[in-house]
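Following up on my earlier message about 2-phosphoglycolic acid. Here are the inputs again, as you asked, copied directly from the submission form:
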Amino acid sequence: MRTRFLIGNWKMNKTATEAGAFVRRLTQELPTSEGIQVGFAPPFTALHAAHEALGSSPDFLLGAQDVYWEDKGAFTGEVSGTMLKDLGCQFVLVGHSERRQYFGEQDSWTNQKVLAALRNGIQPVLCVGETLHDRDTNQTDHVIQRQVRAGLAGIEGQHLESMVIAYEPVWAIGTGRAASPEQAVPVHRLIRQTINELSGAEAGSRVRILYGGSVTPHNIAEFLASEEIDGALVGGACLDPVSFATLAKVAIGSKPTTA
Ligand code: PGA
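Thanks, got it. Here's what our run produced:
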């Protein structure tokens, strides 16, 4: 049984001061995250404050939104896995569609970033997803397989099993137009099948695959009703601590009912 994982992606929102206030409110609203993992990814500048506010709480995981693939050196503006680990990061998003869309992130970069995270003992969350054009031109399967295969190239065994993949259709992100579970589930199956092909059914059965794209407290249960969907990556609805706590409470209370 895979442990479900709820992740909040703050994107470029909240100062360090606001992050501290968020964490204090979140931990009041949600003192424990029994049975699931709950994590959030503040901007780099708020990681330290969030970590301090969390104290030694084992109930929430701290993550970053990106990582550079070298551990140190002359790479102005970049942040390494070694630095993130030192700040208390336990996971990192890699290849979010906004990185791919606005910052030219390539599949080969996502692979190097996944490797850098693993090297530094940080769990990578590889984000994949098709654009509306890809979907309309029946390219979804091709694009998803390409992104998964490229992002995971050379990663095997326990490392592969510890991976998290987030399926986030680009057209569903921040649009209020979530994919339906009927649209998402076949893509989740395809991702798992691709991992099976890469590394065998054992690894495929362990990798967690999250859905992301306009997830809210109102629709999260529909996604989690499928045992193919191991959790959610949430943007807009994670910024308010009460809304994020509600998402977690629904996730804690929901059991898969369909394959
Ligand atoms: P959204 O963002 O929930 O605001 O659609 C999800 C994401 O980009 O991870």
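One observation from looking it over: Strands lie at 4-9, 36-41, 60-64, 91-94, 123-128, 164-167, 208-212, 231-234. Hope that helps, and feel free to reply on this thread.
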